[in-house]
Design goal:
Strand order of the largest sheet: 2-3-4-1-5
Low-confidence stretches: 33-38
Helix content: 55-70%
Structural class: alpha/beta
Radius of gyration: 23 Å
Order of helices and strands: HEHHEHEHEHEHHHHHHHHH
Largest sheet: 5 strands, parallel
CATH superfamily of the largest domain: P-loop containing nucleotide triphosphate hydrolases
Distance between the termini: 42 Å
Mean pLDDT: 87
Shape: globular
Number of helices: 15
Length: about 400
């Protein structure tokens, strides 16, 4: 079926025609008969990574506030999408979780009367990271919402939220965009040449953000190639251990590059807020506040490191998926056609059963990282397991 032409705030929601139809219909029903909740006061946006959950929620927030229902050009749409609208709160954490204190602040804000728009809209982009106590605090606001409040929650799966919260939300599930749709977006929005756009869309496997990063960065493409070369290089225990160390070091460096400037700004802002003087004199309790900030920053760095390693696992999964296709003779397009020689080498050296075991090992490594196992130990164990298929 041909995708409809999207416009306004919905322009970049590629491959999500059904979702756009649902949301535009809800915007149109807003306020009919004087009932601002005619289209539901709490929504849950779910979908695979990179499908555009947060973008859909932001677009919906803009459309709800826009007098024209989401034109994408007025000051209201622009300020909502940029995160500057006073009646739209955008919550995205770099920490491992969203705690009860932060949720209580959101609940208090949700009860405020809108200042410019018709609604108070709260977009929680990482609702799956809300702690159990935080979910309890959120539940009461969702059960008894203020008259002009709309909650928009985002999570990979509905099951990532506690049952009491998700049962009170209207669910909107986003689909994985097609390669053709992602490539078209890269060409139109980012000016990427057709060949690079097609390549990035194919290897990103439906993840729009990853496709954009690969399309725009030669370094990102080179690092991906290095990961895909690993399976043919795991010829000894030493090779496995050295490769694991390089992967963890690279992930740590990536995280540090992202957080260094942000950490410094946060520390300076906190120091000024707490009244630290130029001579270094510190009021009472400042040390505890600084220690808490440092703990939060370490947690953020840990999450970013884990995200970088998760991208490695995703690339390796795509490689062994291609190996399995060759071994079984399945009629499917290879994701990593550029690495065909390496894929064939591993396919010819092993069996389909061994390849399935490799895919299982990657899943075990992902679960280990989620369970806070040492990244180095998790990656060492994984690469040693993969070496058996070479």
């Amino acid at each position: 079926m041909t995708s409809q032409k999207l416009s306004g705030v919905w322009t970049d929601l590629i491959g999500q025609d059904k979702v756009v139809e649902i949301l535009t219909r809800a915007v149109g029903s807003r306020g009919k008969g004087g009932n601002l909740h005619a289209m539901t006061h709490a929504w849950l946006f779910t979908g695979p990574p990179g499908s555009g959950r947060s973008n859909a929620a932001r677009a919906f927030a803009a459309a709800l506030q826009c007098p024209a229902g989401g034109c994408g050009e007025c000051n209201t749409c622009v300020t909502v999408l940029s995160g500057a609208h006073p009646d739209v709160t955008l919550v995205r954490t770099e920490q491992l979780s969203i705690g009860v204190d932060e949720v209580r602040d959101l609940v208090r804000r949700s009860a405020m009367t809108p200042t410019l728009g018709p609604l108070q809209v709260l977009v929680v982009e990482d609702a799956d990271r809300v702690t159990e106590r935080g979910a309890d605090a959120l539940l009461k606001s969702i059960e008894e919402p203020a008259a002009r409040t709309i909650w928009l929650l985002c999570a990979p799966n509905a099951e990532d939220l506690v049952a009491t919260v998700r049962s009170r939300c209207r669910r909107v599930e986003l689909a994985t965009p097609t390669n053709a749709a992602i490539a078209e977006l890269l060409r139109r929005r980012d000016g990427i040449d057709p060949a690079t756009a097609d390549f990035a869309a194919r290897v990103a496997q439906g993840h729009i953000g990853r496709a954009r990063a690969l399309a725009r960065s030669e370094e990102a493409r080179s690092r991906r190639t290095e990961v895909l070369e690993l399976p043919t290089q795991l010829t000894s225990l030493g090779a496995c251990l050295n490769a694991a160390a390089r992967l963890v070091e690279a992930a740590t460096a990536d995280a540090a590059a992202i957080t260094a400037e942000l950490d410094a700004k946060e520390r300076t802002a906190l120091s000024e807020a707490l009244g630290m003087t130029a001579t270094g004199a510190r009021p009472r309790n400042v040390q505890a506040a600084l220690r808490e900030l440092e703990d939060q920053q370490k947690a953020r760095g840990k999450r970013l490191q884990r995200d970088a390693l998760d991208r490695v696992l995703t690339e390796l999964t795509s490689f062994y998926r291609d190996v399995l296709i060759l071994q079984t003779g399945a009629k499917a397009e290879l994701i990593n056609a550029e690495q065909l020689e390496a894929v064939e080498q591993v396919a010819n050296a092993g069996t389909a059963e061994a390849t399935v075991a490799c895919l299982d090992a990657i899943l075990v490594a992902r679960k280990a990282l989620e369970a806070n196992v040492s990244p180095l130990l998790a990656m060492e164990s994984l690469l040693i397991s993969l070496s058996g298929a070479v």
